[in-house]
Structures
1.
Amino acid sequence: MMTQPAPPSSQILKDLTEIVLPDPVGWWPQTLGWQILGILALAFLLLWAVYRYRLYRFNRYRREALQAIAAIAQSRGQSASQSVMSDLFLVLKVAAAHVQPALASHLDRQFLRYLDTSASLAEGFDSPAGQYWLDSLVQPDFTLSDSQMQQLLTLANRWVKHHSNPNQPGLVWRRDEH
């Protein structure tokens, strides 16, 4: 049978001293350079968050236009093709007038060319299908086929997502803003 070792006697422990633990390491940087870098990073993060918020608010018209186009696409089978295409034209016209107010009065190829150039659409609205679309808006006997309507809905979605807007806010504020 094995014997258990005896616990140490108090004679052995009398010269033992307690270990002093070092102070805990702080999370705040100790040198001035890291503090300045941290403040600059926080300032940049704050500016970026303000910029993203301004951009989100600015692009509200895009989100609303995309929702309207989606609603038009869903109602395509229930409504007449002329009313669907006139609703689509109205959505694009309002969005384009938001970007460039001078376009609000146009109902011609100049409007179609603007849509193509502002979104860099290679095969876009300024085509025979686009002209046929304009004709169908003013002449009730013109009707578009399902494939033409689908093509125009796809182009409208692409235009709303990718058109350039010169009024878009930047990361740095302009002095002429109020």
2.
Amino acid sequence: MFANLSDVIKIPAALLIGMAISAIVLLFFYEGLHLPLIGQLINGRVANAAAAAREGYVSLAEKTTAEAKAAEMERQRNAASQALTEAAKRQVADEIAQQAKDAETDVAIADYEKKLAAANRECLADPADVDFLLKH
């Protein structure tokens, strides 16, 4: 069938070379990869375009991050403002309640002093003692 051993090696090698050349031709001309792309790769234009695209993505990511940080700071500022407003309201309510309690205490002390005076009894504590007891 084959004349000698070299024909056995030459025929498959020729088939492989032919298939490789066909694949390269299909790759460059029919799949959209043309020879100018190879020139651009050699000159570095593709790398420069890729770097510019990445730089654009980095800028966009940094902008998005900055906007998110600003929104979070705004949210925290609003929450702090609302908490401060609520604390001020509670403080005013507590002061009003304390004033009412002090007024009740003053009325109770005045009533007790009237009862003592009606019964002809005296409080032996002078005003300084009463002031000390009220403050401590």
3.
Amino acid sequence: MKKLLPYLLIFFLVLNFSILLGQNNPNYPEPEKGMKRVDLKLPKIENDKDYKVEIKFAMEIEVSECSETNDFSFNIKNLEEKYAIAPYRFPYYTLPKEMPVEMISLTKNSDCDKNKKVKKKVLSSQNIFKEYNGHIVIPFYIPEKWTVEYRLWKVNSEFKNAAL
């Protein structure tokens, strides 16, 4: 038994180490039919605590040349946050396959051909702000015709007093 003790100890250490390594590799699901997975990988920057990320969804639509449609609205409550490793590690975001959107189209007061159609990229009107994290990829499961767009915002970390 004394001869087996070092081997058992090594076995349990290797087993424990392999379990810990397996917990750091997220297992994201495959996208459903009609959906796609888009991985948001942010660039590495210095002083990343001074930045926030604004995320919007976009789609290309065909509109009248006279249209001033610039964005679309959808219910942000439909964006569901899930985790690849429960309970709260490696977040990813999903939207329903049949995502209802509202588009308000205004017409320019100009001499344009209302029957002529042009393709235009429109962004979602909702602002989704997240903490900057350039170390991990953030997967989004979105309808196939949509894209994920982002921009970085530099923030001032000082809080100001709002006294009158």
